[in-house]
Predict the 3D structure of the following.
Amino acid sequence: MPEIAERAAKINHALGFCCVSLVGRVEDIAPLLREQDVFIGVSRAALEAAASSCSVILCGNEGYGGILTVDTFFDASLSNFCAREKDKPRADRLLADILTLVSAPGWREKNTEECRRLLKKWYDGISVCQQTADVYQKSLHTPTKATVLIGGYFGCGNLGDDAILQAFIEYTRTHYPNIRVWALTKKPLKDARRFGVRCFNRKNLFSLLHAFGGVDAFLCGGGSLLQNVTGKLSLYYYLCMLRLSALCGAKPLLYAAGIGPLHGKGATRATLKALSRISYISLRDEESLRFLRTRSIDSAKLHLGADVALLLPPPPIFRTYALLKRIGVVQNCRYMCVCLKSGRHTTQSIHTLIAALRMFCRQENILPIFLPLDKHDVAINAEAARRLDGRILIADEPSDITAILRGAQFLVSMRLHGLILATTVSLPAVGIPSANDPKIPSFARLAAQEYLLPEKISLPLLMEIFQKIYDRGDAMRPLIADACRDLQKNAQKDLANIAIMVYNRGRYEKKSEDTI
């Protein structure tokens, strides 16, 4: 620009030598950057300079981010290295940072190399290109061979159930693009935008008839739907859905479900009668499988799968730092996560648990972050966070829970899907179930996680198990990762079986060894 050239000429004339050089247009900037020690700028230009082993000062129209260091790298990434929401640049701050870099060449070179390693790890060219290609691939039109409708407790304010739907949609879209997914949810318009699929009102009869009439198969599942602990209406709603879908021509399938608890002979009899009409029954735990086998359900129909939320892909690491910043947690702060569950069956357990958390967090100087997984849990988690001077994250999406869990020391969860999402990131956890709830102990045994039955909860025992997990966390992570891979294989095989049935219009022959 002429104005810049004129100012550069004046500065050089005043100094008596060429201090400011204008190189003009450069086709290949990397060789030029490698000759420099310090770069001042923002955005992708700053990243390119850091990759070329320049020390970087983030300074631009949006704000002033200062010297890019290992400690500020992830915070800077939240604004795409543009220093948004920072203070405006000032000449004295810029001069001070330049002098810091120039006067300490040893520190400058060490910091530059560390930043370059971080850049190579998180902004590697191959992985970024692959992510870009994946976005384009998803936008390509793939001819539809079949349409499936999945129904469960979706869009009702429970992030665990929403994790099931999100994982099912993303995995199917990636591995079985010829299968179109529709969903039954509470708020179809909102949920269609959230999940990117066509949604129908789960309580509206005309909407249900329209949905069932347009699909090849109806997948009732994801979660413990066939139980009457939360009320009789819930059980009979899902049994009616299975029957209605068959009458409308949609093949009913039970998918990755948990059976029970079922109270009363009438409820058990109605459930078994409905399941006897279904040709494919996928169960997410061995207890449910054993229950149906002992009730004379044809074993050829029964398949052991796993909760599909285990297939939920982890969000980018930068999402973790963004969420921690949102709730006021500084970088490098050690924290643990807690998922409390409201209800009359959990009151006594929560009182003891809060007392143990208070003692442990003070003893180890660790911050508790509370993660309500259901809209009904927000109040109890908020109260606990207030009493323990902790933080609470009210997440919008299941992946936000996974993002926070990834950086935690360990998790204490009274919700099954807290335990499941922790397992996906190899985070040690202890599950505390409600009375007569077998889901958490069953999953914890499969996932190499700890659990504590409510009747055995005491302050000394909680302190002991917290200390054990905290001290042995690094040794537990590989075992959890191995267990998670086995569970994920079951979930993948289950989806492969479903795909075979859908592609073959409901015909499936069980082999001695199913392959994915």
